[in-house]
Amino acid sequence: MNKYRLTQTRSQLLKLLKNTPLPVSAEDLLQKVPVNKTTIYRQLTSMVAQGLIKPVLFTDRTLRYESADRDHHHHLICTNCKKIIDISFPENIEQTAQTSASAQKFKINTHHLEFFGLCQNCQ
Amino acid sequence: MNKYRLTQTRSQLLKLLKNTPLPVSAEDLLQKVPVNKTTIYRQLTSMVAQGLIKPVLFTDRTLRYESADRDHHHHLICTNCKKIIDISFPENIEQTAQTSASAQKFKINTHHLEFFGLCQNCQ
DNA sequence: TGACTTTTGCAACTAAGTTGCAATAATATA
DNA sequence: TATATTATTGCAACTTAGTTGCAAAAGTCA
């Protein structure tokens, strides 16, 4: 009883999302796959629910998605050309923050961290 | 030659933004000040340009603003009741990240960090 | 194949935010 | 204080991202 059907559209979208190293927006997909925008949004919702992809909200307000099977990482975003570079943060941020949070009895489950600056070309 | 005029509306909005300890949305302001939404958005833009307030994008996609004269801090957000609590992170995150970023010749200027979890009441 | 269920496209809709323009309010100057 | 100048405001119309209901099409399974 497989609730999700692997349609043409779905596999095209998944392929794109898996093959693109950096987060992709609904609009990006719309330009690359010949499909209605309603379908794009519904597929994205369904793939998130299924745990195949993860939504990432950028501070420029664009919502993007990336493959869920990636290690925990963060993004460096060039404020000039909007280029995105992956980066991994060496320390356990949540653990460090939990110390301060505990004073207020808050239990941290997850976090969101993004860096902004200039890439090599734009400096 | 003062480009900005301290109108009734502007001072009401500023007062609210200064007196509210946590980030406020355009809609919050709209409900509290008898003024057209166009004016709210224009005032917010102008106050950001003037450096009086800072926009903060939350991962639930709401855009909020807070007084700019605050120390650098982050937010703990309760995923259940949406309550926001301020928190300061003890270490210099940008410095730590710059080490990884340097390998890719990226120069970090700023960052954005948010934590999610459950507040005391919602646990 | 046939029955059942999910997915799709379409058109219409919503919500947040933006724009142009004329009227109004604040400020500077005479 | 009166007047000129410039910024601010409200209004209506618009934009853009995303959503919804519904009928048609495509997948799945016996």
Automatic annotation (TrEMBL), chains A, B:
One of its GO terms (cellular component) is cytosol. GO terms for molecular function: DNA-binding transcription factor activity; transcription cis-regulatory region binding; zinc ion binding. GO terms for biological process: negative regulation of DNA-templated transcription; regulation of secondary metabolite biosynthetic process. Fe cation binds at residues 72, 94, 111. CDD domains: Fur_like. It comes from the Bacteria. Its main location: cytoplasm. Its cofactor is Mn(2+); Fe(2+); Zn(2+). Homodimer. This is Transcriptional repressor.
